[in-house]
Design brief:
The protein is of the alpha/beta class. The protein contains seven helices and five strands, in the order ααβαββαβααβα. The chain has helices at residues 2-20, 45-51, 147-154, 212-229, 245-249, 257-274, 305-319; strands at 141-145, 162-165, 197-201, 234-238, 277-279. A five-stranded parallel sheet has the order 2-1-3-4-5, with helices on both faces. Helix 4 (212-229) packs across helix 6. The chain is elongated and about 175 Å long. The chain starts with a helix and ends with a helix.
């Protein structure tokens, strides 16, 4: 480095002398090879040597060929050249997926058999047994009437006789309404038949008619027509059956005990006039207040199987 600085200073001095018209300064001895021995002739050799002696190359300067010492060699390898340590080895097996501690318990086993479908406690009662007594007394009998009388046949309680009965029929529509599967009106079912007895039961559907006299008149005309079609038959008229107090008090169609009692009185009178037999209701059909017992009917009008059996046994007794 010092030699470089010496050369630069010599060059700088030479340039200044050139521009000033002076004689170029002698080249420092350091720049002349040691074996040339060159010297200026106009000055004594001793003086030249004395004046330029300081310019000789210092002995403490390192040899030019040596590598510069101002850029020290690395003293050690950088610490960051070591193997990476930012990815540590796993210390243990992952624990974020623990093993089940026990079997699932959210689907418990049934504690007992289902009980929401209980077994029937008794046999169905919609096919009751026939009424008691010898019903063969009705083998030659035709029953004619509305749904109240029809129930005795529909429940299978009266198993003898011919039932010319239909729901909703009355003393007027018996001339136009037909039985299921038949092509003629109910009244004409009697044509050409030989019945020993004809049993009538009308009045429930007619209890609300505006005129009770009209009903009695039409009832009487029906009896006459049947007698003319089956002249040798004995005719019987059953009383209108009672209704429950609840049905009677809430009636809006005239089917109440006031009208029923009044009509039964008039029917009895008509039967007496025509020479036909009037048959009252069984005593069990009315309670102490004169109404049909609540247990005897589900709708307050039509009888339960138990009371139909009572009625059938009562009729068997009357006709035996």
């Amino acid at each position: 480095m010092k030699r470089v600085l010496t050369v630069l200073l010599a060059l700088n001095f030479a340039l200044i002398s050139a521009f000033a018209g002076c004689r170029p300064a002698p080249v420092p001895e350091a720049q002349v090879p040691a074996d040339t021995g060159a010297a200026f002739t106009d000055e004594p050799a001793t003086e030249q040597a004395a004046s330029y002696a300081p310019a000789a190359e210092p002995t403490d300067a390192p040899a030019p060929t040596a590598e510069p010492t101002d850029a020290p060699a690395p003293t050690a390898a950088p610490a960051n050249t070591a193997k990476p340590t930012d990815t540590p080895k796993p210390t243990a097996k992952p624990t974020d997926t623990p093993k089940p501690t026990a079997k699932p318990t959210n689907t418990p086993k049934p504690t007992a058999k289902p009980t929401n479908t209980p077994k029937p406690t008794a046999k169905p009662t919609n096919t009751p047994k026939p009424g008691s007594g010898d019903q063969s007394v009705f083998d030659d009998t035709a029953f004619m009437g509305s749904s109240v009388l029809h129930g005795m046949y529909a429940y299978g309680i009266m198993t003898h006789g011919t039932f010319l009965t239909k729901i909703g029929v009355n003393v007027n529509t018996v001339y136009t309404s037909k039985l299921p599967g038949s092509s003629v009106p109910i009244i004409d079912e009697l044509n050409g038949k030989k019945y020993g007895k004809i049993v009538f039961n009308f009045g429930t559907n007619e209890a609300g008619w505006p005129s009770q006299s009209t009903f009695i008149s039409r009832y009487g005309a029906l009896i006459d027509d049947v007698h003319s079609r089956v002249p040798g038959a004995a005719l019987y008229v059953l009383a209108i059956t009672p209704v429950t107090k609840e049905r009677s008090d809430g009636a809006t169609d005239g089917i109440n005990m006031t009208n029923i009692n009044a009509l039964n009185g008039k029917i009895k009178t008509m039967c007496s006039e025509k020479g036909v037999t009037f048959i009252k209701n069984p005593p069990k059909f009315t309670n102490s207040s004169g109404y049909l017992p609540d247990e005897a009917s589900s709708d307050g009008i039509h009888l339960s199987p138990k009371y139909y059996r009572t009625w059938a046994a009562y009729l068997v007794e009357k006709f035996s």
